[in-house]
Amino acid sequence: MISTILSKIRHPLVANSFYLYLAHFADYLLALIILPFIARVLGPEELGYVGLAQTFGIFILLIMEFGFPLMATREVAREKNNPEKIKVLIGQIFSFKLFLIPVILILSTIVILMVPVFHENPHYVFIVVIGSIFQGMVPTWYFQGIEKLSTVAFSKTIFRFLGFSLIFLFVSSNQDGWIVLLAYMISSICIFLYLFKYMINIIGPFHLAGRSSIKAMWQKSKNSFFITILPVIYNNLSVIVMSIIVSPLQLGYYYGAARIHLAFNTLYGPVGQAFYPRLASTDLGNPEKAKQMTKKFLWIMTAAGFLFFSMIYFFTEPIIFLLLGEEFLFASTTLKIFAIVLPLTAISHVLGRQWLMIRRNDNQYAKILLISSIIGVISIFILIRSYGILAIPISLIIYELLTIILILGFLKRAR
Known about the structure:
This protein is mainly α and 415 residues long.
C-alpha cells in the first residue's frame, strides 16, 4: 500500500502539479501573505494606485508572453525528444519577444500621457513595465513542456521571497507604493536571469531568427495570444474606466477585494498547466482517452470552484478583516460577487484553455473570447453608473457565463 502511494506521489502529473503550486505560492500566495502589511501601511488610496499599475503590468506581461505559454508548451511537449527543433523554436520565440519591446515602450508612453492616474505617477508605470518585460522573457513554457518544473518552482520561491523581504524592510509609509513595485521588478529580473541561464545549460547556445521567422511566429501564436490577451484587455479597460469614474478610495476597496479573488482564481493555473502538456501528448496518440481525461478534470475543477466560492462567500468579512484590515470592510459586497465568478472560471478554463486548445480550435476559442469580452465591456458601461465598483465583478459573471455557453454551443455543433 505504501509503495502504491509513493508511486502516485512520484507520478509526473502529481510532481509537476506540486512544483507549479510551489511557483504559484511564490507568485501569488506570498503576495497574499504580505497583503495585510501592505494594505495597512499604504492605506486604501495608495493601494489602489499600486493595484492599477500592477493591472497594467499584467497586460504588458501578456503582450510579452504573446500566447507562448499555450502554443510553445504544446510544441515543446510534442518535440521534447527532438532538441534541435526545440532550439530553433526557442530562437524564434526570443527573437519575437525582442521585437515586441519597442512596441511595449511606445504603448506605455501613450498610456502614461492619456490616463490621468498614470500621468500623475509615471514612475509607477515605468517600474511595472520593466518588471513585466523581464517576467515575460522567463522561459517557463520550456520547463513546462519538458515537464521539469522543480527548477522554476524553487527559483521563483527564492527570488520572490527576497523581493518581499525588501518590502518589509523599506516600505514604511503611504508614500512607498513605488517600493512595492520595485521589489517585484527586481525579483522578476533575477528569475529571468537564473532560468534563462539554466535553459542554456541544457540546450546549449541558440541563434536568433530572421524577419521571416518572426512573421511565422506571429502566424503560429496569434490565436494563443488573443486567447490570453482578450480577457486582460477587457479587465484593464474595465479598471481604467473605473479609475476615471470612481474615487481613488473606492478603487482601493476594489483592488483589495480583487487581490483576494485573484489569489483563489490563480489556484486553477498550476494543476491546469501540469495537466496541459500531458493531455497534449495523450491526444496525439489516443484522442478518446484524452477526452475522458478532460471530462474527469472538468468535474475536479468544478468541485474546487464551488469549494472556493463557499469559502469566500460565507466567510467574507473575516477574510477581509484578516488580510486587509477593518478599513476595507466596505469591500465585502464586491468580494461576495467575485466569489460567484470562481466556479464559472473553473468550467470555462477546462472547456477552453484545455480542450479547445488541445483540439487545435484556437481560432474558434479566440472568437468566443472576443465576443464575451465585447459584451462584458458593454455591460460595465451600462452598470457602472448605478453599481460603481460592483460593475466589474458583475460583468465578470456575464463574461464567464457567455464564454461557457458559446463553447458548449460550438462543441455541440462540432460533433
